[in-house]
Amino acid sequence: MEDLLCDLESNEACPEPNPKQTRIQKLSALVQWLVYFILMWQSLCKLSDNGLEWLLQFLFQFLKVLSHLSGCEYLGELLAIIPSSLYLLRKFACFDRDNFNKYAVCPKCSKLYDMKDCTETDHRGKRAVKHCKHKQYPRSKTCGAPLAKKVVLNNGAEEFYPVKVYCYNSVKEKLQEMLMRDNFPQLCESWRDHQTQEGYLADITDGQVWKDFQTVDGEPFLSAPRNYMFMLNFDFFQPIKHRNDYSVGVLYLANLNLPRSVRFKWENIIVVGIIPGLDKEPASLNKFLVPLVKEMKVLWNGVYLKSSLCRLPLRFRAAIACISCDVPAARKLCGFKSHNSHRGCSKCFKYFPGNVKESFDFSGFKREEWPKREIGSHRQYATKVLRAKTRTEHDALAKKHGLYYSVLLELSYFDCIRFTVIDPMHNLFLGTAKSMFKLWMEQGLLNKKDIQTIEKRIKEFDVGTGLGRLPHKISANYGCYTASQWKNWTLIYSLYVLDGLLSEEHMRCWQAFVLACKFLTRPVITALELQKADLMLLQFCQKFEQLYGESHVKPNMHLHGHLKECVLDYGPIYNFWCFSFERFNGILSSFKTNNRCIEIQLMRKLLSDHFVSSASLPNEFEEHFLPMFSHRFVDSIESIIDIVKLGPKLMYAAVSSNLLDIEWKRLDSEVHLPRFHRVRTLDSDDLSSLLAVYKLMYGEAITDITCLAKTVRRFGNIFIGPEKFGSRLECRSLRSARIIAKWADNEGLISPCAGLRPGRVDCFIQHTLKIGLQSQQHVFALVDWYIEDESKDKYGKPVEIWRNAFLPGGPSRFLPVPRIFSKFVVASTCKDKVIIVPLNRTFS
To answer: What does the domain layout of the chain look like in residue ranges?
Structure first.
C-alpha cells in the first residue's frame, strides 16, 4: 500500500529501508529462534527453572565478555535484545505461565472457592483464615474446615495461602489457541471425507453415537461445520517418586473430530484441571466438574472464535459425548454406584447379591436377563438422590437406584449410561488377563517348574522392534506388568508359553479370551469379527464360571458382556481405550517439582510444553533452523487424511476374493518408497509371472506381455501409511519382513480365496504397467511362502505351526503390497518347523 501511495503522489522511488532497522529486525528474529530453542530444551530435558535461570545468566555474561573483546557492534545490539533472565525470556516470548484459573479447595468437603474468599476481615479489621460454610445436606452440619493457612515471613509480615488449590484450564481459551494453529481447523473437518466401507468399523465416524450426533433435537450439530465432540478422561497418578500416599487427579479432554493418527497427541490434548492431593480420594468429582460444566453449557450454545482459516470470529460449538477411564474414575465422574455393590454395572441394572465383607457375586451371563438402564428414569432417580435432606436418606436412595447425582447431567444432551464406555485397557488386560495369571498361581495350576518353563519359552520369542519384550523373570515381575506388557502377554506370548502347562479345558477357556482380544484389538474391525469377539468373551465367562466357581468371577467379566455395545457406539477400541491417557500421566509425573503446590507447578510446566509445541516462529532463518525442529511439526493435512482413508480400504484389499474390485492405483499411490534403489532387468519367467498377476488384477484390460516394462526398481523396505515393512535385502529390517496374506494356495498357485499364509519378503519391486495410452506403477513384494504343516493348529488359534521350508517360485511369489494382511512374530524355530503368532495391522 505504501508503494502504491508513493507512486500516486509522486514519481519518486520509495525511500530505501533503513539498514540498521533491518539489521535489528533480523537480530530480533534470531533471538526468537534462540528463545524457542531454550524453552524447547527445558521441555525435552525437564530442566528446572533454577537451572534455566543459571544457564541464561551464563549465556548473557558470556556474550557480554565476547562483545567487549571483539568490539563487534552486532553482538552489542544482540545483547540489547536477548533476555538475561527467565522472567524476561517469558516476557519476550509472550508466554504467561499462570494463564489458568485457581480455586481454593476445602480439604474436607472439596467445595471450591475463589482465591480471594480464603480470608476474611475480623471485627478488629485484621485478616483471618476463613472456614468452609458448605453443607453437604440441608440438615447436616456446616463443614467448618479452614480454607487457608497463615504463614509468618522473615520480615514479620503475615501471608495467607490456600490449603489446597485446584488448577483449571479454560476449554474455550485452549480451543481458541488450537484453532489458530496452521491446518488445525482443516484437520477437525477432515472426517467428512471418510467413506464408510459397508460392514467395517474403521473410526469413530462409523460408530452409532457419531451418527446420532449429526442432528440433536432437530438442530444440526456434527453435520454442520465447526462443531466438535470431546472425550473426557480422569485419572489419579502419583507425582512424587517413592511415595504411594500422595496422588493428584487430572481431567483430560480429547477432540474426537481430529483424525485418529493425531487425536491423542500430547499437543492436541486439553488438560482441563489438576485436582490436588487430598487426605482421601473424593467420593464424587461433582465440585471439580462445576467449572467445566458451566463452560460446556456455553460451548453447546455456541461461542465466537477466530481461527487460522478466518480471523473474523465464527460460531463454534462443542459437546462432551464420551467418558473413557477406569471403572472407579467413571463411577466418580458419572454418578454410578461403586463396581463393588449390588447395582455395580453402569450399563445394566443387574442385581449382584452379597455384601462388602463376603464379596459380591458377579456370576450369571444370561444377558437376556440383564435389565437395561434407561437415561430418562436415571435422570429422575438422580434428581431424587440430589434432593435428599440427610445422609441416611441419600445413601438409601443411592442403594435402591444404584446411582448418585452427577453434575454432568446438567448438560441437556448428556447420556451418562451410553457415553460411559468400558475401557478395554483396564477391562481386558489390567483386569482379566492379570487376574487370570494371579488365579493360576494361587490355585497351584502353575508351579515353580512351570514358571521356569514359561520363562525359557519367553526367551525363545523373536519379536520385532516396537513391541517390547516381557521381563524374563515373570514370577517376580508379573505383578508390576504395565498395561502394554499384559496386552503383549495376552495377544503374543501366552498361548505358546502355556501350552502343556495348563490342562486342556483351562487352555480352551483362556484361548477363547485371547481370540476375542485378537479381534477386538484390530484397528479396523468387521461386524462379523465383532460378533465373534462378543460370543467368545461370553463363552470365556461361562467357562470360567464352571472351572473356577462363582466366587472368582470379577466385575470386569460382567463388563465384557457390554464391550460390544461400546464398539458399536464408538467404533474400534483404539478410539476410546486409555493407553494414551496413561502416557500423559507419565509425561506429567516426569516434570520436576519441589514437592510443594505440585498441582500449580504441573499446570505451569504443561502450559509451557503446549506453548512450545504450538509456537509460531519467524520466517527469517527458517532454512537454517527449521530442519532441526522438524520432528515437532505435524505431517501435512493431506497425508494425515490419506492415512485415515487408507485403513478400511487396505483391510478390504487384503481379504477380498475379487481382485477386480480393488482400487490398485489408489492404494499403490499411498505406498512410500525409500530413495535408495537398484534397477534390475526381469527375465522371461518373471515377466510371465507378472503377466499372470496383472490379468487377475485388471482382467481383459491386459492383453499381452508388451504391456509390461522389462525393468524394475528394487527396494529393501517400504512404508504403507505409518507402518514399515522390511525384507531380506535389508538386514536391519529382517524382523519386519515376516508377513501373512491371502494369496498362495498349498500348490504355490495364486488363490485369493485361500487362507492366510505366512511368508518372508525377499525384496520389494516397483514395476511400470501400460494400459492403453496410460502408464501406472505398482509395488510388489517378492515373497517366499511357507509350506503348511500337518500339525498347523496344535496350539490353537491364533498360534500356528508351519514347515520351515518354502513353496516353489511362480506367479504367487509376486504379491501386490495392498494384499498384505499383517506381520507376524516367531515364537520358536525348530529344525524343520516354525511357530508363528500373527500381529494386528497398524493404520494410525
So the answer is: 19-95, 101-166, 180-335+411-422+578-609, 336-405, 424-561, 639-838
